[in-house]
Amino acid sequence: MPTALPVTVTVARALQIGQQAGLPRLDVQLLLLHSIGRPLDQRAWLISHDDALLTQQQLKQFEALLAQRQDGVPIAYLTGQKEFFGLTLQITPATLDPRPDTETLVEWALDVLQSAQQPRVLDLGTGSGAIALAIQSQRPDAQVWAVDQSQDALQVAKANGAQLALPVQWLHGSWFEPVVAAQLAPFDLIVSNPPYIRPDDHHLPQLRHEPLQALVSSQQGLHDIGVIAQAAPAHLKPGGMLLLEHGWDQAQDVATILQRAGFKHIAHRHDLAGHIRCSGGRVS
Ligand code: GLN
């Protein structure tokens, strides 16, 4: 016998089921909107239609999504989208779920670019394209290139670029390899949110649904940051800058890496929790 689901479930009852499953109200609202095929910005609709009935299929989908969320799958993968810097991005498990903290890096990049006209910008390890697209959306005059080693991630990024009609140029390969291959001229700004989590970080199990290659780096999480910092000066114009996101406790190590790579005027930016989350420097 199938389990005895209630025959009819209202929006109000569905929200209750979700919260009884121990999930935050916002998560439950987003999953319910997605299950009933409404845009995710219509949370007010749920309140004004709390007696609307779900179809059996909507209820089944909602319950399946609740179970996946309880298992730690990011909301962005379940709904297929995420807001980042005012843009709606399509997200799949091929890319990292863009974090609000990464908007700090975008804000810093936009500050740096304020004085530059038609700047040339490079985003390394673009994933869903979040950083590159956010910069391009704010600076239509910029020429933005974005690199990723994962073809699957690049498909997501390209689709986002097309959907948002933003002319970011996508390159496949590892860090600067496709930049060298395409013989691209030096940039005003290079940005990156590379993998920076230590292989033994005890938070990793919580992130198990996201691509490991976008999260984890060897040498205490600093290997990829080191590779990027070493190679970046050869791809920057005089006075050009490299801005990196890194772990909450890596600022000192990243500053040392940047100095050794020849960067000057090392500076930092804090994330929403007040940790130094981004560091960068300038080449002379
Ligand atoms: N900020 C992410 C986290 O700590 C990691 C992103 C990354 O490794 N680039 O979950």
UniProtKB/TrEMBL annotation:
Domain Methyltransferase small per the UniProt entry, residue ranges: 110-200
Binding site for S-adenosyl-L-methionine: 125-129, 148, 175, 193
GO terms assigned for molecular function: nucleic acid binding; peptide chain release factor N(5)-glutamine methyltransferase activity
UniProt cross-references to InterPro entries, sorted A to Z: DNA_methylase_N6_adenine_CS, HemK-like, N5-glutamine_MTase, PrmC_N, RF_methyltr_PrmC, SAM-dependent_MTases_sf, Small_mtfrase_dom
Pfam family membership, one: PrmC_N
Domain Release factor glutamine methyltransferase N-terminal intervals: 20-80
SUPFAM superfamilies: S-adenosyl-L-methionine-dependent methyltransferases (SSF53335)
Reaction catalysis annotation: L-glutaminyl-[peptide chain release factor] + S-adenosyl-L-methionine = N(5)-methyl-L-glutaminyl-[peptide chain release factor] + S-adenosyl-L-homocysteine + H(+)
Key words, A-Z: Methyltransferase, S-adenosyl-L-methionine, Transferase
GO biological process terms, semicolon-separated: methylation
Enzyme class: transferase
NCBIfam families: hemK_fam, RF_mod_PrmC
Entry function: Methylates the class 1 translation termination release factors RF1/PrfA and RF2/PrfB on the glutamine residue of the universally conserved GGQ motif.
Family designation: Belongs to the protein N5-glutamine methyltransferase family. PrmC subfamily.
Protein's name according to its UniProt entry: Release factor glutamine methyltransferase
